[in-house]
Design brief:
- The radius of gyration is 39 Å and the shape is extended.
- It is an alpha+beta fold and 506 residues long.
- The longest helix is centred in the C-terminal third of the chain and has 67 residues.
- The chain has a 6-stranded antiparallel sheet, with no helix packed on it.
- Helix content is 65%, strand content 11%.
- The protein folds into 4 domains: 220 residues, no CATH class; 96 residues, no CATH class; 111 residues; 38 residues.
Length: 506
């Protein structure tokens, strides 16, 4: 009997899980495309490159999509079971809610382990591929798209203006082309009545065929001063002329996969642990070195005061032999001129010390920020996996309580809890990166805040609580309304009785 129940629960859960996982993944991909559509449009990317980019970014979204899919699938599964009285039938047979949830607990535990290994092994590789390909696409110049009206400066060392453009034949009319390859300004210009444009087969050059025009070029004068220049020029007319313009940066140049290998998001747990230990040891050594340097060069001890205050050797020896150090007594024993000099030197030393402390403090701030970034990424690989369990313990009992299946109500509740989780996680991450709280407290804040909520909901669902039943709250407000109505009626009757008594007395 129980094995059939386990199979039934697993079968009811896996279908919605697959469906919601791909729905969430598509939504995340659409968000990515919306963010980078300006950088992808007009680059002339073929479908293979776009498919590769979407594939690698889809892999990076898997650890984020999985917890939300589990939450939504849990709500749908147990909501449907509650709506069609299947939970009630199982409970009436003596099977508790925890026993019904047991096969899914084991299944989600396995999914969490798989999610961790995915985040640790697959995600760094996918992130490296995705970021490198996106970097190459950003470097690629947009396709040649000369529009009528303004000057087009997309072709290196050329400035092209087209008065009009035929959208059917792609004929260009009234062209003006400035050649800046000699880096001497606007000394070479070509004017044509019409022309056509095409790229070479390998995409390395742009061929422009011009008709009925002329070329104007200023001739370079050698060994002539600027005041003596006559600025000679040459004007050549043509019926047909071909100009070949080299194109650089218009093709997609692929970078090495190790371009961003030092980024924390592209490392495994072992690599992150190594970097955290190395950066931590380097940071501690540098702090100790700065402290010793400050203590020896910026803080003046008793033995230094004889030099600082320009005291005599006899006074210095007597100070060393004295049991107590009394700065006021030493200062009062100095002549007036030496007092002024001592105060000036003290102020300079304080300013110098403050500048030194500000510099090393800024250096330490950025070092600890880099270290925290690696620690955050280390914890993130665990928190995203653990979030699968957290969301299951929220979704399953909540679905049993609300008893509503489908995508409507579960989707709204899932988005609500996911937004809470995301906001808490993001806030904790920012605080951890700024070293305001510990990395563990910041990265695990959402988990140890929402996990008790899930356990509380599990308890309420086990005891058949009506905490999420809207009829309960409607009945509660109805009772309050009835009490208010009876109170009002009693007040009116009391006032009427008093008026009646007063009238009788009169």
């Amino acid at each position: 009997m129980l094995k059939k129940v386990d199979k039934f629960v697993l079968k009811s859960f896996i279908g919605p899980l697959i469906l919601t996982f791909f729905i969430v993944l598509i939504i995340l991909l659409l968000q990515f495309l919306w963010m980078y559509v300006d950088e992808l449009a007009g680059k002339g990317l073929n479908l293979i490159i776009l498919g590769e980019l979407i594939y690698y970014f889809a892999l990076t979204f898997v650890p984020m999509a999985l917890p939300l899919a589990i939450l939504l699938a849990s709500l749908m599964t147990f909501g449907n079971m509650g709506e069609f009285s299947e939970l009630s039938a199982l409970k009436s047979s003596g099977i508790s809610l925890q026993r019904i949830m047991r096969p899914l607990m084991i299944f989600i535990g396995v999914v969490s382990i798989v999610s961790f290994f995915f985040s640790n092994d697959v995600m760094p590789y996918a992130t490296s591929k995705a970021r490198t390909l996106l970097y190459d696409i950003r470097r690629k110049k947009p396709d040649i798209n000369i529009q009528a009206g303004p000057f087009y400066n997309g072709v290196p060392d050329f400035s092209i203006k087209v008065t009009s453009k035929d959208p059917v034949t792609n004929r260009l009319d009234k062209l003006i082309i400035y050649d800046h390859r000699e880096k001497r300004g606007n000394v070479s210009v070509t004017v044509a009545d019409s022309g056509y444009m095409k790229t070479t087969q390998d995409g390395s050059g742009l061929i422009m065929t011009l008709y009925s025009g002329y070329s104007f070029n200023e001739v370079t004068e050698n060994n002539v001063s600027y005041s003596e220049r006559s600025h000679p020029s040459r004007k050549d007319y043509f019926r047909e002329q071909t100009i070949v313009m080299p194109l650089q940066g218009f093709d997609l140049e692929r970078s090495d996969d190790g371009l961003f290998k030092s980024n924390a998001a592209m490392m495994t747990i072992a690599e992150l642990t190594f970097h955290i230990d190395s950066l931590g040891d380097a940071y501690n050594n540098r702090v100790s070195s700065h402290f010793n340097d400050f203590k020896t060069s910026k803080i003046y001890h008793l033995s230094n005061y004889g030099y600082v205050m320009n005291m005599s050797a006899t006074k210095e020896d007597s100070l060393k032999k004295s049991k107590y150090f009394e700065p006021q007594a030493i200062f009062d024993s100095l002549p007036a001129a030496e007092r002024k000099d001592a105060i000036s030197r003290a102020i300079e030393n304080i300013k110098d010390g403050n500048i030194y402390l500000a510099q090393i403090s800024e250096s330490h701030y950025w070092e600890i920020k880099v270290l925290k970034r690696y620690e955050v990424e280390w914890n993130k690989k665990l928190t995203m996996s653990f979030a699968c369990l957290v969301f299951f313990f929220i979704g399953a009992p909540l679905g049993a309580i609300i008893r509503k299946g489908g995508l409507g109500t579960p989707a709204v509740i899932s988005i609500f809890f996911f937004v809470i989780y995301y906001v808490i996680s993001l806030s904790g991450q920012k605080l951890a990166e700024e070293n305001l709280i510990s990395t563990f407290a910041g990265m695990w804040a959402a988990s140890y805040i929402l996990l008790p909520v899930g356990l509380f909901l599990t308890y309420k669902a086990t005891t058949d609580s009506v905490i999420m039943n809207i009829d309960t709250y409607l009945l509660f407000f109805k009772k309050i309304k009835d009490k208010a109505y009876r109170f009002t009626m009693n007040e009116k009757q009391s006032k009427s009785h008093e008026i009646l008594i007063d009238s009788q007395n009169e």
